[in-house]
Amino acid sequence: MKSAQLEKILKAHDNQSSNVLAILQDIQATKNYLPRKTLEEVAEKLQIPLAQIYHLATFYRAFSLTPRGRHLVTVCTGTACHVKGAASILNTLERELKVQPGETTGDQEYTLETVNCLGSCALAPLVVIDGHYHGRMLGTRALSLLKGEKDASKKS
Ligand code: FES
User: Fold this and answer.
1) Which of 11, 29, 72, 87 lies at 20 to 30 Å from 96 by C-alpha?
2) CATH of span 71-155
3) What global pTM score does this model have?
4) Among 7, 80, 73, residue whose Cα is nearest residue 46
5) Ligand 1 centroid vs 78 CA: distance in angstroms?
6) Taking the domains of the chain in order of start, what are their residue ranges?
């Protein structure tokens, strides 16, 4: 992250160490992950231990220490979704995107993740794309939704 970008985020939070969580959220929103070098700068500027920042960065699932794609695709593999075919959806996405869960496509377009039950089992099998829940999913439908997201983000 460029220094000027970080300065702007720090300034928006009054350079206060008590606002470190909000600062990390802004960095995550800007870069789609938390670059190590940026975290070191945050630690230095706010004068808080880097270990404390890493503790927060690894505690909250919303943060990622590795680059994420522009689109986050989460396949629920909890029991209800598993029974309704989550494995088949996951296989289709792995094959077409050529990544395993936890990985990002080479073009930085998609990050594939799995999760154990999102509490919406009535919608099983469930896939979440960029925070939007898509219930009663099929692998092929998930792929066309991804294509739609990609096309939409190209236009914007
Ligand atoms: S098992 Fe998928 S939402 Fe509960």
Assistant:
1) 29
2) 3.40.30.10
3) 0.72
4) 7
5) 5
6) 3-59, 71-155
